[in-house]
Specification:
The protein is α/β, with parallel strands linked by helices and about 190 residues long. It has helices spanning about 40-55, 65-75, 80-90, 105-135, 145-170, 180-194; strands at about 5-15, 15-20, 90-95, 175-180. The chain is elongated and about 60 Å long.
Length: about 190
């Protein structure tokens, strides 16, 4: 049985390292999204899906501006959140980096990155949870409760990203650091056009 794995690419921009999802490696298998373990979060996810379905099916009327607003807001979500959600489903994580950076440096930066992301998503998970009563009170407005739906969506996303980061911290997935010579050219091109 093959493991589900993802590949994360290290990019250098200026003097900073950035992590991004790379094209799937040969060990990648499609895995269905995991449901939240807690009953409360499962209920929030189903409420979000019902509200989101109504908004996505809108072809006009009052929901069309709401649909455009949600698509705009979704475009502003940090790609690192998506990366952590993918890590949550992976048994193996392969981090490819330009060899001049050195494994020790990349390993240290990745650990710092994961710790920062776990704190960030943990904090926002609490904030979104505390906003639930306020956004739930807006059910008196006619139409789907977009505010509650968006807040529930953000709560579930922060939970999934937090859980992905915690899996790495606990060592529940294998993390391998692999130097990739082809990334040296990408680093050189970035220096040329900077």
């Amino acid at each position: 049985m093959k493991q589900h794995g993802i590949r994360i690419r290290v990019d250098v921009r200026g003097r900073r390292l950035f992590f991004s999802l790379s094209s799937p490696g040969p060990t990648a298998l499609p895995v269905p999204d995991l449901e939240p373990r807690h009953r409360f979060l499962r209920r929030l996810k189903s409420a979000y899906e019902a509200t989101r379905g109504a908004i996505d099916r809108a072809h006009g009327g009052l929901l069309l501006p709401v649909q455009r607003l949600i698509r705009y807001l979704e475009s502003k979500i940090d790609p690192h959140e998506t990366l952590l959600i993918e890590v949550r489903k992976a048994q193996a994580v392969e981090i490819v980096y330009p060899p001049p950076l050195g494994e020790k440096r990349v390993r240290r930066f990745f650990r710092r990155f994961i710790n920062c992301q776990v704190r960030y998503h943990g904090r926002w998970m609490i904030i979104n949870f505390l906003l639930l009563p306020l956004t739930g009170a807006l059910t008196v407005l006619p139409g789907p409760n977009v505010f509650f739906g968006w807040n529930a969506f953000r709560l579930v996303c922060h939970y999934l990203a937090y859980d992905g980061g915690r899996r790495v911290q606990r060592g529940q997935c294998q993390v391998r650091f692999v130097p990739d010579q082809t990334l040296i050219d990408a680093v050189d091109e970035q220096r040329l056009f900077a």
